[in-house]
């Protein structure tokens, strides 16, 4: 018996999509996800994966130099699997390539001009080394490249996230995508 195909069948019967909102820290992932959940025409649950890592101890400890947790990806995936299976989840994290392709219906990669990003990270009191690393990652489009390498091109969307207007437009665009997903997947 092929257990992978039965899992795929279960995922295809979901009543709501799984959306990944990703991007370099400071690009607006959590704000976008919160607004999306608030405005969605179907029930969605926002899962901030970074917060989940801290709250559920899904890490191998805290790295003082980088001021971040060393994530145990296997524990994260084990924790998320039952949450994702029924659908209706917005996964918010600075990376996306650990999520199995079969889980994901849409990957939104938020992008930001590096000068705007630098200011945002300074306001969060990030250490200089961490600001530099994240700024370099944004300039080199590391998260976008990871998304493009990990998922089918048609489900990866790159969106600018620098202003309040960008935020509102991005949420509106994702809401339109959800409406299309409903038409395509929930028709009788």
Account of the 3D structure:
The protein is α/β, with parallel strands linked by helices and 188 residues long. The chain has eight helices and seven strands. It has helices at residues 3-12, 29-39, 49-56, 73-84, 114-123, 128-139, 142-150, 164-185; strands at 18-23, 45-48, 59-63, 68-71, 89-93, 106-111, 156-160. The strands form two sheets. The protein has a five-stranded parallel sheet, sandwiched between helices. Strands 3-4 form a two-stranded antiparallel sheet. The longest helix is centred in the last third of the chain and has 22 residues, at 164-185. Residues 1-11 have low confidence and may be disordered.
Topology:
Blueprint: H1 3-12, E1 18-23, H2 29-39, E2 45-48, H3 49-56, E3 59-63, E4 68-71, H4 73-84, E5 89-93, E6 106-111, H5 114-123, H6 128-139, H7 142-150, E7 156-160, H8 164-185
Helix pairs in contact: 2-8, 5-6
Condensed summary:
The protein is of the alpha/beta class and 188 residues long. It has 8 helices and 7 strands, in the order H-E-H-E-H-E-E-H-E-E-H-H-H-E-H.
């Amino acid at each position: 018996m092929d257990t992978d195909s039965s899992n795929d069948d279960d995922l295809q019967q979901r009543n709501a999509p799984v959306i990944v909102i990703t991007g370099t820290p400071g690009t607006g992932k959590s704000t976008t996800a919160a607004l999306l959940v608030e405005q969605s025409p179907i029930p969605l649950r926002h899962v901030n994966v970074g917060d989940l890592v801290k709250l559920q101890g899904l890490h191998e400890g805290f790295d003082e130099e980088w001021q971040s947790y060393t994530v145990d990806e296997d524990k994260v995936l084990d924790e998320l699997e039952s949450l994702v299976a029924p659908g209706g989840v917005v996964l918010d994290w600075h990376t996306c390539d650990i999520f199995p392709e079969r889980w994901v219906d849409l990957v939104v990669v938020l992008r930001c001009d590096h000068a705007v990003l630098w200011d945002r990270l300074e306001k969060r009191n990030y250490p200089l080394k961490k600001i530099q690393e994240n700024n370099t990652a944004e300039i080199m489009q590391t998260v976008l490249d990871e998304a493009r390498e990990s998922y089918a091109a048609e489900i990866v969307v790159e969106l600018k996230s620098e202003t309040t207007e960008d935020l509102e437009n991005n949420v509106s665009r994702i809401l339109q995508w959800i409406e299309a997903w409903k038409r395509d997947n929930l028709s009788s």
